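Quarterly update from the structural biology core.
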Amino acid sequence: MNNNGLLIVISGPSGAGKGTICRELMSHKSSDLELSVSATTRSPRTGEVDGVSYFFKQKDEFRKMIDNNEFIEYAQVYDNFYGTPKKYVMDKIEEGKDVILEIDVQGAMKVKQNIQDAVFIFIMPPSMKELKYRITCRGTESKQDIDKRMGNAYCEVCSARCYDYVVINDDIAKAAERVKCIIIAEKCRLNRSKIDFDSFKEE
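Predicted structure, tokenized:
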């Protein structure tokens, strides 16, 4: 039986809480659950560690990785690039690890085009009113930025139909538990599909 792990893609609009849910999952994680490490061309921030927080790359190095088809997905955000290194993820999956990709909707759709066996989970806010409240409470965005994020959020919510599961984040602990249950169910489904049931026939 193939003991490869699962690729779990978690995304949703900014402010839905996907990052917080992933951190909650990792704080109680089993030994076979990994959070993917992205590559970026931006400079490290205080406390960030290369290979743990991100793989920090120079732009020329990142572009060379693009040319060599070394990313599952990548995007340019303002003046910097961000991407999911293919080898890192595939190596972990072949080790039997279940790998979580926490990426935006655009990146998730690119993964969906390239990897058929991934599990796609959309994190939905309880309401758009609550989503705006969460973004506003950050205190880091201007009104113009908030309006832009909300406009993007309405478009991204429409993409939820392209996902295998939708989890409403009305409570972090409960939402994380729902995601955990999805992963367990998908693991059971995957393993069941690989069992040779003919071998259990009566003699």
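The chain has a mean pLDDT of 87.
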